[in-house]
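Below is a filled-in request sheet from our internal design queue. Each sheet records the structural input a requester submitted and the sequence that came back. We keep these sheets so that new team members can see what a complete request looks like end to end.

REQUESTER: design group, bay 2
PRIORITY: normal
MODE: inverse folding
CHAIN LENGTH: 138
BACKBONE (tokenized):
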């Protein structure tokens, strides 16, 4: 792994850590509990997790947006964003190619404008994959 790939991996982990810490602090202040689970793969069958933010055209977080992770060969998993617009899907089976998972977002009164998938380090099939989803008002 070259130094550019190492820096990219470090920044991806820092963004994920900061986002999860902020999400936990927000939930704690609201009197609730929010857990995303462990980001380390504890099973040899786990592929990378998917996480990211849903934002509007101004870059503001969109809470309670529906985020779908659809597998190109069929099937999908749905979650919603928290108050900070953060979502996370745990790792899919290693038999599913991460490139065959398509992330989309939706919320009443909005339409999907853009989806940005951050590249993984070359050959790293366990690092969480960050996917930003942008909505714009109808």
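RETURNED SEQUENCE:
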């Amino acid at each position: 792994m070259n130094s550019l790939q190492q820096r990219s991996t470090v920044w991806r982990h820092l963004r994920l850590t900061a986002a999860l810490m902020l999400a936990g602090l927000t939930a704690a202040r609201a009197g609730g509990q929010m857990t995303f689970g462990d980001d380390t793969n504890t099973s040899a069958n786990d592929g990378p997790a998917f996480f990211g933010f849903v934002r509007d055209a101004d870059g503001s977080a969109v809470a309670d947006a529906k985020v779908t992770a659809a597998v190109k060969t069929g099937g999908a998993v749905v979650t919603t964003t928290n108050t900070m617009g953060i979502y996370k899907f745990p790792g899919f089976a290693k038999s599913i190619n991460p490139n065959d998972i398509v992330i989309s977002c939706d919320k009443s009164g909005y339409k999907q404008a853009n989806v940005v998938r951050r590249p993984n380090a070359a050959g790293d099939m366990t690092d969480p994959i960050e996917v930003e989803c942008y909505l714009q008002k109808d």
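SHEET NOTES:
- The two ends are 44 Å apart (CA to CA).
- Confidence is low (pLDDT under 50) at residues 18-39.
FILED BY: M.R.
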